[in-house]
Amino acid sequence: MKLTKRLHSCVQLEKDGRTLVIDPGAFSEPDAGLGADALLVTHEHPDHFEEGRLRAALDANPAARLWTLRAVAERLAPAYPGRVHTVGHGDAFEAAGFEVRAHGELHAVIHPDIPRVTNVGYLVDGSLFHPGDALTVPGVPVETLMIPVHAPWNKVAEVIDYVREVKPNRTIDIHDAYLSDIARPIYDTALNALSGAPHGRLTAGDHTDL
Fold it and tell me: Which domains does the chain have, with CATH numbers?
């Protein structure tokens, strides 16, 4: 499986000539979802869900399908009957040849006064876990953990403890649009030294084989 990092929390996975894209939101490239055979969206916040980009991806490939939580599915299902699927915690499904299982129910707490929205993380092919905006522990072995390295709702100590609890073989940063280049080495050093897993960082457009 080939992983290509896109901007912010968007990642592209390729296997056997088919492509799956997770969270092509407003902070990702405008064409991040184009060419996808399957799309997954973790939650409704605009840096993860941008309706116009999803519509463009679905229009460009009539065979493409979308799996997401109810709040997003309801926005798109009427225009794409049979192509938009609602999923929640514990659901398992096949998306363009990828085996996917949904884990998690709520977005991390930003502030007690801000209502929490639904958030669903995705374990792909029993190997890669994208948690969206939550520190969900899937409770199964994870080879590659995509870590939301910097967000309004977390701090590096929580990310380190999250990696320690999941115990993946490796981690790769997502949710990094808020993090300036000058601060990157601080996060890289802390995660490499303390998380217990090899930590990697890909710039947008870079790829690696998993």
Answer: 2-202 (3.60.15.10)
Q: What is the pTM of this model?
A: 0.97
CA distance 118 to 120: 7
For residues 154 and 157, give the distance between their C-alpha atoms in angstroms, rounded to a whole number.
8
Separation in Å, CA 94 to CA 39, 72, 111, 122: 12, 19, 35, 12
- What are the distances in angstroms from CA 156 to CA 140, 175, 179, 195? 23, 13, 12, 10
Type of residue found at 198: P
HSE value, Cβ hemisphere, 13 Å, CA-based, for 210? 27
Give residue-wise pLDDT tens across range 45-57.
999 999 999 999 9
